[in-house]
Specification:
With 161 residues, the protein is α+β, with helices and mostly antiparallel strands. It has 2 domains: 5-12 and 92-156, Alpha-Beta Plaits (2-Layer Sandwich), CATH 3.30.70; 14-90, 2-Layer Sandwich (Alpha-Beta Plaits). The protein is 31% helix and 37% strand. It has helices at residues 26-38, 67-72, 74-81, 109-119, 143-154; strands at 5-23, 45-48, 55-63, 85-99, 126-129, 133-139, 159-160. Strands 1, 2, 3, 4, 5, 6 and 7 form a 7-stranded mixed β-sheet that branches. Strand 5 and strand 6 form a beta hairpin. Helix 4 packs across helix 5 (143-154). The radius of gyration is 17 Å and the shape is elongated. The two termini are 28 Å apart.
Length: 161
């Protein structure tokens, strides 16, 4: 079996946005994406947390240059999808491991990622996986160590920034 992870990208010019306590219904994320798109805001990653008592948090990763636009949308989002608060964390880095579609069918890939993060003392604030990519959000202060451990674990020579 060859190396299923072919490369690693990272970006330190991102912000984690938490849309707190939104109404949990199918149209919520669709409306959020529509609203962001109308403002030319690209959500690099979006995670909808498990609903609880009809409410849920939505986490998005956007470019730091777009944070002000999201701040300006606070009232509209409160009115339309019931967002009670929007929190921003600019001290994060987005890491994406990409490779072959077999990544999703190979047991232990996520384990290897989390062990590398453990060795770097880096907590994944967000973890998302698809057939050919794993996306992580870590504290910016830990990104260099996390990248070094991930490069070593998956025998990657070059990073894309």
């Amino acid at each position: 079996m060859g190396n299923l992870v072919k490369g690693i990208e990272y970006n330190t010019h991102v912000v984690k946005v938490v849309f707190r306590n939104a109404i949990a219904r199918p149209s919520t994320i669709a409306y959020l994406y529509e609203t962001l798109a109308q403002e030319d805001i690209n959500a690099l990653t979006i995670v909808h947390c498990t609903p609880w008592q009809g409410r849920s948090d939505i986490i998005a990763v956007i470019y730091e240059s777009q944070q002000f636009k999201v701040s300006e949308m606070r009232d509209e989002l409160e009115e339309t999808i019931g967002v009670k608060d929007i929190r921003f964390n600019p001290n994060v880095a987005l890491i994406t491991l990409y490779g072959s579609p077999e990544m999703a069918q190979t047991p232990g890939i996520a384990l290897r990622v989390f062990e590398a993060l453990q060795n770097a003392n880096a907590l994944a604030e967000v973890f998302a996986a698809s057939a050919d990519a794993i996306t992580l959000l870590v504290k910016e202060s830990r990104v260099i160590d996390a990248l070094a451990e991930l490069k070593s674990e998956f025998e990657i020579d070059e990073l894309t920034h």
